[in-house]
Amino acid sequence: MRDNDLPKAGLSRRDLFSTAAAATGALVVGFWMPQRAAGQMTSPEGATSISATWATEPDVKEINAWVVVAPDDTVTIRIAQTELGQGVWTSNAMMVAEELQCDWSKVRPQYASANRDGREMAPEWTLQVMGQGATDPLGGGEPEFGHRSRTGVEGIPNSLYRRMRTNAAASVKDGRYYLQLAGAEARERLLLAAAKSWGVAVEELSAANSVITHRPTARTITYGQVASLAAQTPHPDPERIRIKPPSEWKLMGTEQKNLDVPLKVTGKTIYGIDVRLPGMKWAAVKTCPVYGGAVKSYDFERIRSEPGVISAVEIPIPDPSLIRDRVFSGGIAVIAESWYQAKTALDKMPIEWNVPPAHAARNTANMRAVLIAALDQPGRVHVNLGDCDRAIAGSARIVEATYSTPYLPRARMEPGNATVLVTDNRVDIWIGDQSPQETRQSASRITGIPEQNVYLHMCHLGGGFGRNGNGPQAEQSIYIANQNRGTPIHLLWTREEDFIGTTYRSMGVARLRAALDADGWPIAMEVRTAMDEKAPGAIAAFDKASRYYVPNYRFSTHSATFHIPVGTRRGVGEPAHDFYRESFMDELAHAAGKDPYLYRRELILRTDLPYKADMIKALDTASEMSGWGKPLRPGMARAIALEERGAEGGGHATISAQVHTVSISRDGELRLLRVDVAHEEGFGLVNPLSVKKQIEGQITWFYNDTMLQECNVSEGRISENNFDRFPLSRIRENPPEINITFFKTGHWLRGMGHDRGTSVQSGIADAIFRITGKRYRDLPFRNCDLTWS
Amino acid sequence: MAIELTVNDVRHSVEVAPETPLLWVIRDQLGLTGTKFSCGIAQCGACTLHIDGRPVRSCSVPVSAAAGKAVTTIEGLSADGTHPVQRAWIELDVPQCGYCQSGMIMSVVALLEKHPHPTDAEIDAEVTNACRCSTYHRIRKAIRLAAAQMQRRAL
Fold it and tell me: Residue A562's Cα: distance from chain center in Å?
């Protein structure tokens, strides 16, 4: 546990603790309040919470790397994923606490140390879990432990905390085996310690609610009383510890309020932007708005005497090998005593850019034309079942549609930031980061300081929506701090800079073509999609097998190379592809003169997909909940769609269906009035409350994608770069009614946080068609004429 | 120049350029980091606080406009997080990432002072803050809960 080794910049450990207190609001103009130094505060419900989230050295010896039990029975649970609103701070803790059988009200989450993860290997017993040759007794799909990249880029590493990435909605899916095991191992050792101290057989003991009972004598002892002994009592045979199946869960599967909410309603949560260090200076940054560009010249002399200004640092284009080969831009940072001074001076500084001419020649229209043209090129064929060309050529009824989706950023509320202190032999980084193992490596590569001397102090993130750790904010800050060794540098992007420092979901187009038989059922379907060749998720929703039965099926991907950095925005490839697929199913149903619910139902029924019963259950449940088929007044319509990830396979999958009830006034004002959601829970949800919140949030997220949001390219740069031109929906647009029904299924889920609610897109598109008679296929619809008479 | 500010009932004299947005004085000079920066152009409302009880977007209000007035931030809403709006937020587990919630709560407190029993239209008109996680569904319910609790307290 070395996270609080003293940095070599005159900062004492006490300063760092005081800083935590300062960020809670206890700081009054440079006056430290030592009584708040441990960062402790009392929550409204009486529970003690820790407002500084990052790893600290415990006062007592840990039981294992995940669990520390203090003499007062407080349980610290180390969390290796980042809390960004998805509830992982609570759900990961629940998985450990379920097995630990501790008093839930005594649990305090704290981030795991990424530094320690860089030094220590995972305990052998965590490697012996399902996915390492062992079989899931429930047969429900196994985590993807295949690769073991040290930085966590691929697969799940075998370093101490295994997977520290927060992505792919996979914290529960991948973590549950070893997190449950970590809780179980600690519980067993507490029991062994109690047995040892009483001189009784461990089999005579039971544990519940942080109390160990010797059943024959009814003697009790608390976890806190035996924790110190447990920490020194190794388990003789940890490989034999088994974890609880869902049928034995007591805490998991119950609705638990998120543990950090009391801090979030009092302003006490420490996000990266809130970190304050003694002697810290601020950096404001401008990078070339055309990606791949860099600074040609700048005139620091013009701003040197502006208030608070200290220096300027030219930032090269961040090494693409540190950020998954994405090419961002070079730029310039101004360092000043306060951020507002730095930003104000930077705005006044003359800067000229070297812009790659080919990039500057790009705009939305010519990029879209390139993608549309790519659809007619051969492409890469992923599935080719039967003979699509012949079936389509021989058919009298062809339906064809071309759809498109725009470039989209994550636009999380907290702009990119990081605070970095580089000294001669150590790097300290305070950051909300979804890929700390990668950032650890970046810090080492940029500074030349070994990875084991890199310390990440993890903060909560003000939104994530697709691994924003892979924007270059960490790399920029490390670079600047490395030029200013000994001085903590807090880099903060403006909102406009945040739109440059993010990766985008690629613009995409799709052409779907189907031949229908005399009864309106598809006999052939051809799907061509195109986006940037570096974009992840190109095969989503269409690969391996059509989700709707068709005897001749071909799916090919096509691509072009553009200069906008693309990445894993919420849902990755799924949302755009779900829009194409489900919109097309609506178009086919209308062409066939059939009910879109029953049309889908019949076509799923005809497949041999492994989870078709679950897909049908989702459709049936959602339609029933919504009153499907009951008359609506003019100007209203319902639309239904299937949402799935992994339904074509036999492992993890997440399946749901939604019905959207929409109204449009005659003058074209659209309201999403009601959403009925039927969602599977697999063997069990860890925290159903968080799942509901994720579903509610994603409905609105995809409403934004449908109605409001797009980023266009003009002269090579992104045009919409703040919330005036890139609107966020407000409470007045939110659906007044959201109904969620969970139903049990027989497999493990693939995740909840990123691709639920994608059907809002096709749902609104189809409702517009039903009400106005107009079919729109290019998202978003904000400029579409929705009037009707 | 020195500007006199009263923030959460504490008087401060801060040396700052008068055109500096109030947000940065609150966050960086007074160390009250609960009030957030997000857009910088008075769009999103993450920086909402009260000047003399009225909600303002502090990223776009010069500190000079608050001179001699009473500023209230999320830290000053209650000593212990027990304002009815905060309690309702906890009860319904409203926040996700939480970044917008300080500003959101300050807007809702102002709404309920103006309209103790707000209609949906009044909520829609007064609460114009943006939440990227989209916690609006729970926010509306929590506003109703807080309004009911405040009424009970007033009786």
Answer: 25
From the list B74, B97, B124, the residue facing A732 with the nearest CB is B124
Lowest mean pLDDT segment, chosen from A217-226, A464-473, A702-711, B60-69:
A464-473
d(CA A96, CA A115): 21
Residue B118 touches chain A, beta carbons under 8 Å:
no
**Residue A696 near chain B (CB below 8 Å):** yes
CATH architecture assigned to A272-357+416-492: 2-Layer Sandwich (3.30)
Q: Best interface-test mutation with B: which of A53, A266, A725 has the largest number of B CBs within 10 A?
A: A266
A414 Cα to chain B: minimum distance (Å): 6
Q: Give the mean pLDDT of A225-237.
A: 96
Judgement on whether residues B7 and B64 belong to the same structural domain of the protein: yes
The residue segments making up the domain with residue B130 are 84-154
The pTM assigned to this predicted structure is 0.93
Domain total in chain B: 2
Residues A375, A708: Cα–Cα separation, whole Å = 26
Q: Where in chain A is the domain with CATH 3.30.365.10?
A: 39-263, 272-357+416-492, 365-408+504-772
User: Tens of pLDDT along A473-521?
Assistant: 999 999 999 999 999 999 999 999 999 999 999 999 999 999 999 999 9
pLDDT tens, A15-26? 443 344 333 333
Question: What token pair was written down for A443?
Answer: 């810090």
Determine the CATH number of domain A365-408+504-772.
Answer: 3.30.365.10
In this structure, are residues A551 and A525 in contact, taking their beta carbons and an 8 Å threshold?
no
Is A732 within 8 Å of chain B by CB? Answer: yes
Higher confidence at residue A603 or residue A172? A603
- Global ipTM: 0.98
Task: At B17, give phi and psi (nearest 5°).
Answer: -65, 130
Interface of B with A in 60-99 (CB under 8 A): 73-75, 77-78, 80-82, 86-87, 89-90, 93-99
Separation of first and last alpha carbons in chain B = 47
| Closest residue in chain B to residue A82, using alpha carbons only | B97
Distance CA A192, CA A460 (A): 36
Give B-chain residues touching A265 at CB under 8 angstroms.
81, 86, 89-90, 94-95, 98, 101, 105
**Structure token digits, residue A73:** 């029975």
Q: Tell me, what DSSP letter sits at residue A23?
A: I
Cβ-contact A54, A87 below 8 angstroms = no
The CA dihedral of A159, A569, A478, A17, to the nearest 10 degrees, is -70
Instruction: Tell me which residue in A263, A463, A736 faces B132 most closely, judged by beta carbons.
Output: A463
Which phi and psi (to 5°) does residue B112 adopt? -75, -25
Across the strands, what pairs with A516?
A397, A522
